[in-house]
């Protein structure tokens, strides 16, 4: 079922300041289940997740991780691309992990998708290395985002890619709000050590910003000096 975008926008504008916002940060209980249902069906949510996955340009044999995967919309798009690879999704909400598992049940059963109930601040290096990482409308919710992004860089192989997305959902958000969010994310990625940082915008209301970067490629082996 498709959700009528304008009516939902009006409801969220009313509900956000009355406690609704916290549910998007960590959906819990029955209300959290409804929030996940909304995130999984809201047309702008689905569009920005699929767009970000296209920008990340995942290849069939790649290993990919998504942080703050919510109800698993991007996980489904990532798994469709990484058809001979694998996808790991992480979220600190048990309700979201359940929904993501249900949405991606065939790929989970096939062992191509693994969903981990954990906070991003507890990621272990044993999870990696990954070829690419994705985080959609979640980085701003993390404690010390730059430190988390630096840890994430350590989970990526040399040359690995990242895409972080922000579509501001605060009441009254405009294109200027999205541009400011993009500038902040680009600064955080640069501070975390990512290279070739660039921004793409998707024309939604308000626009979604996707900031992409790369981990430095492995340095070529030092040539041996000829002695004679
Ligand atoms: C606004 S939702 C976005 C969900 C999904 N990325 C999407 O675009 O549909 C933010 C998600 O990030 C998760 N999240 C927030 N902070 C987190 C943290 N520190 N560790 C793990 N997940 C987190 C929330 O539980 C929630 O599912």
Write a brief structural summary:
By secondary structure, the protein is an alpha/beta fold.
Please name the defining characteristics of this protein.
228 residues; alpha/beta; Rossmann fold; seven-stranded mixed sheet; binds S-adenosylmethionine
Quantity of strands, as a count = 7
What fraction of residues sit in β-strands?
A: 15-25%
At the first level of CATH, the class is Alpha Beta
Q: Which regions are unreliable across 5 or more consecutive residues at pLDDT < 50?
A: none
Alpha plus pi helix count: 9
Mean pLDDT value: 92
Bound molecules: S-adenosylmethionine
Return the structural class.
alpha/beta
The Rg value, from CA coordinates, equals 18 Å
> Order of SSEs, N→C?
HHHHEHEHHEEHEHEE
Could you name the CATH homologous superfamily? Vaccinia Virus protein VP39
Q: What about the largest sheet? A: 7 strands, mixed
Q: In the CATH classification, which architecture applies?
A: 3-Layer(aba) Sandwich
Query: How many domain units?
Result: 1
Shape: globular
* Intertermini distance: 74 Å
């Amino acid at each position: 079922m498709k959700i009528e975008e304008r009516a939902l926008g009006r409801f969220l504008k009313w509900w956000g300041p009355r406690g609704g916002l916290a549910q998007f940060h960590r959906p819990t209980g029955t209300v959290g289940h409804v929030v996940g249902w909304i995130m999984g069906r809201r047309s702008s949510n689905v569009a920005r997740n699929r767009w970000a996955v296209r920008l990340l340009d995942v290849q069939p044999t790649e290993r990919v991780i998504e942080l703050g995967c919510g109800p698993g919309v991007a996980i489904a798009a990532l798994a469709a691309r990484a058809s001979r690879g694998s996808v790991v999704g992480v979220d600190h909400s048990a309700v979201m992990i359940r929904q993501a598992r249900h949405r991606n049940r065939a790929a989970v059963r096939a062992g191509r998708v693994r969903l981990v109930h954990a906070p991003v601040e507890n990621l272990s290096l044993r999870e990696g290395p990954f070829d690419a990482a994705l985080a959609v409308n979640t980085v701003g919710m993390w404690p010390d985002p730059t430190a988390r992004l630096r840890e994430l860089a350590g989970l990526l192989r040399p040359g690995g890619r990242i895409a972080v997305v922000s579509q501001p959902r605060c009441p009254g958000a405009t294109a200027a709000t999205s541009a400011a969010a993009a500038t902040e994310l680009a600064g955080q990625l640069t501070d975390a050590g990512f290279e070739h940082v660039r921004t793409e915008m998707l024309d939604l209301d308000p626009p979604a910003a996707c900031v992409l970067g790369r981990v430095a490629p492995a340095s070529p082996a030092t040539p041996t000096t000829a002695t004679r």
